[in-house]
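Amino Acid Chain and Its Fold in Token Form
===========================================
What this section holds: a protein sequence and its matching fold, both as plain text.
Structure line: whole-number tokens from a learned vocabulary of local backbone shapes, matched to residues.
Purpose: to set a sequence beside its fold so the mapping can be learned.
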Amino acid sequence: MTRHWIRSFSAALGLGLFALAAQALDVVDERGLTVSLPQPPQRIVTLLPSLTEGVCALGACSRLVGVDNYSNSPSAVRALPQLGGGLDPNVEAIVALRPDAVLLAKSSRMTQRLEALGLKVLVLEPKSHADVRRVLDKLDQVLGTHEAPNIWRAIDAGVSAAAESLPASAKGQRVYFEVNSAPYAAGESSFIGETLTRLGMKNIVPASLGPFPKLNPEYVVRANPDLIMVSVRSAAGMEQRPGWSGIRAVREGRICRFDAAQSDVLVRPGPRMDEAARLMARCIAEKAG
């Protein structure tokens, strides 16, 4: 009887250890480094809004214990501790939350410090449509959720549907998308530019200038776009910029001004890109002429 119990206990222990080993995973992040996790993390800190939204889209919002100051969607994350900006977060506050994993951008200056304190850090930063798909797949692997293919199909189908909603007469317009009033623009090679291309628009900022170049305002005057997309905040005083009153889009009132919530959707490469495409399509349809 005792020998049988010992054999049963040993078998159960072996199965338990096998199950734990099966849950362990190695993840290669955007630094090309392999991060070993004993199991899918249950306490996660995200320091980039698009990563916060990605975790939640995959059904793991309840695992978040802290976020950066700019993560505000879905609404549930607003109740979580805010840990500063993504570049220079509050390291002490992060450590106090005892996270199993910290997800942050390549541009963060705290990666090595967090690792030196014994935290598991994953660097993931989507910058294009292909990146969004890849990062969702990577998050899926980390979380063990198996939802990324469905999420991506929905995003992709939503962008296609937004493009199909536009009449042929609205397509082919030359668009200037201003990210902020410096002015920084969303170029053809940015994820915003990729969406505009899929909507049938022509970006006045070519890929050769980079994804988000700072422009000389005179560049926009010379390019003379048919349509301008801009946040309400950046749009203040746009018509009074030197020479801008002669731009066709300004002259004809063909400027789409997005409020703060809409701007958040538009400038985040993540699971709401289909919503961003719908916002752009609505703007294009309303201002077509």
